[in-house]
Amino acid sequence: MKIERTTPKTLTLNQRRQSFAEVVINLTPAEAQFEAYRCFYCWDAPCQKGCPAEVEIPQFIWSIRSGNVAGAADRIYRANPLGSICGRVCPTESLCEKACTSKQVNIPIAIGHLQRYACDQRLAGGGPLFSYPPVSGGRVAIIGAGPAGLACAHFLRLAGHQVALFEPEEKLGGLLAWGIPAYRLAPETTQAEVNAIAGSIEWHQETVDAARAQVVLQEFDAVFLGIGKGVPARLQIPGSDLAGVRSAVQFLRDVAAGRGGFHDLAGKEVGTIGGGATAMDAARCALRLGAGRATVFYRRTQEEMPAFASEYDAALDEGVEFVWLAAPKAIEAGESRLSVQFERMELGQPDQSGRRSPVPTGSRFTFKLDVLLEALPSEPDPTLMLLLDKNPKVFTGGDLAGGGTVVQAVADGKEAARKINEWLTQGGAR
Ligand SMILES: Cc1cc2nc3c(=O)[nH]c(=O)nc-3n(C[C@H](O)[C@H](O)[C@H](O)COP(=O)(O)OP(=O)(O)OC[C@H]3O[C@@H](n4cnc5c(N)ncnc54)[C@H](O)[C@@H]3O)c2cc1C
Ligand code: SF4
Asked: Is 13-125 a domain of CATH 1.10.1060.10?
């Protein structure tokens, strides 16, 4: 007999169009307990092996089942200080839930939703999330306060080290604060978990450039570089500098900051170039801001798209349209709109990424758009890369090291903290 998975309620499509409120509503206590009953508590916990942060999944689900929700949250937070955030944004379908035994006879356990449930209950209960020991060890500089830097800071503080965090933005959290939109990750959740860590460290609100990096290297016993991939690639085609062509990352930042002006999209036709999370979120934000139509143009097909399946499905549900096998070639300013010329692609042999590559066919078509958002892959800022040049005091992780997800950034930060602790306490070389 198939026992249905308990799926949380979501906002209606109408509500989604009009608000940035979280689409997925947290499980109720009864729903969470019912879902916890479906778990087999597998002795070999394949789900846990699929979790980069190594959360003890069967154990926390058992705690929920037995009504000990605070115990479940403690167990999650022990492994992952950003537990509630990850419960919301982890691509569980390709991590823990992909490995879940229940999949063979039923539907995978809703591990992400259960994690969010336990952590949200804990946050709502108030009180400090973490208890850090007094500082007694080495001095470590963390450059960049995204999930990688914050996780590294957290585990280093737990080990008794002094941590100085260098982050120029007004808010800590990196892409959690200004990349992932509020309808998927409520800013209050980010703030609650980030503040729980930030209270124990000293924050220098500054950018570390190459010259400052040399000073930091001298002043600290070790350095963790978690600067992510902050430089989005731009289109290199005629007309890409026209007004109306914008960086999707900058657009998402403006949306997160509530900056006006550019957001006057009512009734407008918005195109987005790309196939990753940024493209999905930019198009979904455009619709929430009143765009009449939001279309994503991608040079391969859905199968090769880097966006998580769940994000593609949500974008489709909300009315985002997709044009596959289309690469932009030129943009012209029309009387009131942009005229964007695309070349039709076809799929060729797999490239280095293992995905079939787009091959130009020579056939072209034109789309009229009001706004074109570029959501192309980002690159790391090269300025600080010299720090990584075989310096044994420098450790790295997160997107800069190839990560790509919040939970991988957390796992990298945690592993770097372990190595830095070893380096500081045992003089161990890597
Ligand atoms: C739109 C969007 C949606 C996403 N959705 C998801 C999702 O649903 N699920 C998921 O798992 N992942 C998602 N991701 C990916 C995820 O956000 C990243 O993998 C993760 O944030 C990487 O963490 P990080 O700490 O390496 O870098 P970042 O989060 O990029 O943080 C880097 C920090 O370093 C700071 N910095 C940069 N240069 C310097 C410098 N010179 N000096 C000091 N500080 C510096 C930056 O200001 C920033 O705060 C999404 C990404 C985007 C863009
Ligand atoms: S693999 Fe699935 S069924 Fe087994 S313990 Fe993990 S969540 Fe439960």
From this structure: yes
